[in-house]
Design brief:
The chain is mainly alpha-helical and about 180 residues long. Helix content is about 60%, strand content about 0%. About 10% of the residues are buried.
Amino acid sequence: MDTQRKPPSLVDLCINLAIENVRYIGSVSGLDSNLLERILPHCNISQLTRIENCSKGTDLSPVTDKLWKRFYEMEHGVDNANRVIERMQQKKVQFKWKQLFEAKKKEREEAENKISKKLKQSYAESLAEKQSRQTRMTTKIPPSKRGFWGGSRSSHLTNYKSPLMKKAKIEFLNRLYIS
């Protein structure tokens, strides 16, 4: 058993330092793809996007394409990614995973906006319906207790012998006078 550990190489130390500070990396133009393959897998979506945007003129897709595929699978599911691969094979076309990721993200945002608009519209309709049923203060003066032909309201009710008919007549008259 070897008790002496081999010290890390200068390249390994530099890579570890780059990984620790990946949030500050801008352009990686001119770096060897072997180094990029060790550093870039430690980036999140925004960091990888920033690095690609800063490295204009350098095609990073041989290194970043598999990273974008991984992000696609994490965001949209492995089954969805497999369907995309099947469709590309059927149609005999090849797309970069970054393009597919951005297209799917845009599609999802549009669907969310559409649902949001429907929800807002539904809420507004519900609120309008609720307000239409709300009790409101009015400036109308309630009619006097006297009936239309004179006398009290109860005098109109003496003709009915059934208490149910009498109650119905009272409710009807009350609605007339309140409205």
